[in-house]
Amino acid sequence: xxxxxxxxxxxxVSVATVSKAxxxxxxxxxxxxxxLVRTAREMGYFPNAQxxxxxxxxxxxxxVMFLEEAGRxxxxxxxxxxxxxxxxxxxxxxxxITFISNKDIGGRRMSTYEHCKYRSVDGIVIACTDFTTPDxxxxxxxxxxxxxxxxxxxxxxxxxxxxxxxMEKLLNYAADCGHTKIAYIQGKKSAVxxxxxxxxxxxxxxxxxxxxxxxxxxxxxxxxxxxYQLTKKLLKGREIPTCIFMPxxxxxxxxxxxxxxxxxxxxxxxxxxxxxxxxxxxLLSPKLTTYAQDTPLIGATxxxxxxxxxENPQTTFTEVITVDGQFLEGGSVKKL
Amino acid sequence: xxxxxxxxxxxxVSVATVSKAxxxxxxxxxxxxxxLVRTAREMGYFPNAQxxxxxxxxxxxxxVMFLEEAGRxxxxxxxxxxxxxxxxxxxxxxxxITFISNKDIGGRRMSTYEHCKYRSVDGIVIACTDFTTPDxxxxxxxxxxxxxxxxxxxxxxxxxxxxxxxMEKLLNYAADCGHTKIAYIQGKKSAVxxxxxxxxxxxxxxxxxxxxxxxxxxxxxxxxxxxYQLTKKLLKGREIPTCIFMPxxxxxxxxxxxxxxxxxxxxxxxxxxxxxxxxxxxLLSPKLTTYAQDTPLIGATxxxxxxxxxENPQTTFTEVITVDGQFLEGGSVKKL
DNA sequence: CATATTAACGGAAACGTTTGAGATGCACCA
DNA sequence: TGGTGCATCTCAAACGTTTCCGTTAATATG
Lengths: 336, 336
Fold this sequence. Notes:
Two copies of one chain form a homodimer. The first copy, chain A, is an alpha/beta fold. Chain A contains twelve helices and 13 strands. Chain A has a six-stranded parallel β-sheet with strand order 2-1-5-6-7-12, with helices on both faces. In chain A, strands 8-9-10 form a three-stranded parallel β-sheet, with helices on one face. Chain A has a two-stranded antiparallel ribbon with strand order 3-4. The longest helix of chain A has 17 residues, at 191-207. The N and C termini of chain A lie far apart (71 Å). Chains A and B meet through helix 4, helix 5, strand 2, strand 3 and helix 6 of A and helix 4, helix 5, strand 2, strand 3 and helix 6 of B. Chain A binds a DNA duplex through residues 1, 3-5, 13-17, 19-20, 23, 25-29, 32, 47-48, 50-57.
């Protein structure tokens, strides 16, 4: 690998001058800087990332904290999409992405935060299903720039999908279609679940729709099995709803199977609504009516904000950025 | 951050001794090593990754080259799963994962290989849809340890899913069910596609099944739309097959929709077979009969092999490791 | 013309490690 | 006793940068 020293030798200047020239400092003449930049290019020079990091404490590396209890990890479509656009945006700005977790190093257990310190990441993005772990708190309370996705800590900037608005839009659509007997299989208790429920309630009140407690069972996200069971239970009740909101599109598959297994069909007998707008939901027939979270925008915004926090420490004020999604009308809701 | 110097000061020994003690060198007495290790732990010491890398040229970082033309990136379930287990296994061995691509740095375009050099990754795993790009060749011909997934270069070790065997198993099953009129919508031309076709042919010959050229259209992987069109075309033919092999489970959704749109049903009128065993395929009703690639094993093997190449350069002989998958019997194939 | 200012560059320390070569003390053997 | 070998530890250079400070020469200022 060609180093600054090689360039300095070839051009008869000091190493310091080469460094300054390549980094755009002012105290080097335009003539020599042009000459140095040119030969650096000719010789195929690239800075040594670790040497630079050692001096500057800047690695141009972003840590991704990505804890997912089910172990599905990258397989989780929402996370995968967000991460994908995060990565793209970060790379555009010259940053690389490294996965961060708690792990063993040299026989000693290292917490996630220690891992970040060890790797000297410039910033951290946290996207978890569970934000209540000690590992998360340690990172949140640390001194490395952080953005969180879909969870708000009051001292940190957060990018959140507009869950409240999403549910409102979906419920308004159902109401527009004439539905009043609406059930909602909730996701597991979390900040996201609360927001969605809030949006659901709010819209119900606005539209004068009565919310039955027994029509608000708590299930789990991304869990078709649980959703299958809960859907069946709803369909066996004394009074059955005409429209069922599923926890999300993936879980909805279970719900749809339950409806089918009860000898009913979507949307003629029962209307179904999902959440997420994952690819599959639009390949079903009928297409699932759902709300597509703007994952590309969420990821890109997270990256931009994080980098901004890193590069302009003075503007470090906490901020909550809400990203709207898009209503997707499928054919899974019957117009009464 | 506490450094070696801090420990050496506290314990009245030289920095060198601390370094050697912590790294398990032999020329330090058991007594002092124990003392040093203990105070290092007490003081919360972690080695500085970049300083160490600067000296040793070892970063304990693995580069992931992950080129996917459709831009689906991590969303591609096969890749996501493989990457997930790769990551887990690598972290177990103390390695971290960094995404590698071609990008701009300091105004100059950097190839993927240059990127690897810049970050000084210890090894690279390549998982692409297209192995014919210059970027891939440059990495393959470089001097950094490499393993490839699902593609074989003769100078590098490769982890490949047993595509030939998978297709054989599927075709044998179809034949066992009594099917003789079998169509196969192929994936896009690639090493993987060739292997699968080879397995298909081989099994057909074994079972005495005639292969009609018009029943072997070339479609694309993960493309429900194309598969939809090709399936329709097959169903409109003069003679129609009783069983259709789809490029993969994801594409199969398109095929299944086409069958439905033609007023036919699976498996009563047409049998369908997928490939991959992705989660959705087992949530459909009927479940899709398919072949699940052992993605956890593929990823873990890739990580282990790569690390072995890094840590034992003497054993650097090229190797091709074939990973078998598992046949999944669903309900999408009718027994004639 | 003397002095202050400025532009352009070099010297050298520092970042936190690793590592080979040397230094020290001690036991051992002839 | 003097050398040899060994165990244990220290010295110091090196990895490739960045950056503060100093130096030089040229130019501007009074």
